[in-house]
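If I may wish for something, please walk me through the protein I am sending here so I can picture the backbone:
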Amino acid sequence: MGRPYIKGGTPIGSDSLCKTCSYAQIMSGFRESELLTICHNPDPYLTVPFNIYECTRYYDKNRPSYNQMQKLAIHVEPKTLKPAGFRTGIGFQESVKVTVGTTDDDDEYDDD
């Protein structure tokens, strides 16, 4: 059973959102404490002193751009439309006329 999502709860894990953001410049040293993250989205640039859990300006650098998506897209040509309604086939070829509110005396409807 998976863990339930609790809004505003304690985050699980310690990976920074900046690691996959296209606006981030991350420099790391040999130790875990030697990490410098600079965000290039605000003006002037912002040095981030801690791991980021949530960011409103996050832009995933692994997401393809619009031009890349157009190159990958498959062009589909529409085919002729099928007739709307019920299916026809063997046993459904006979046409049935239904008249509502008429009597047997009415001769204006002919059976074809």
The helical segments are 66-72.
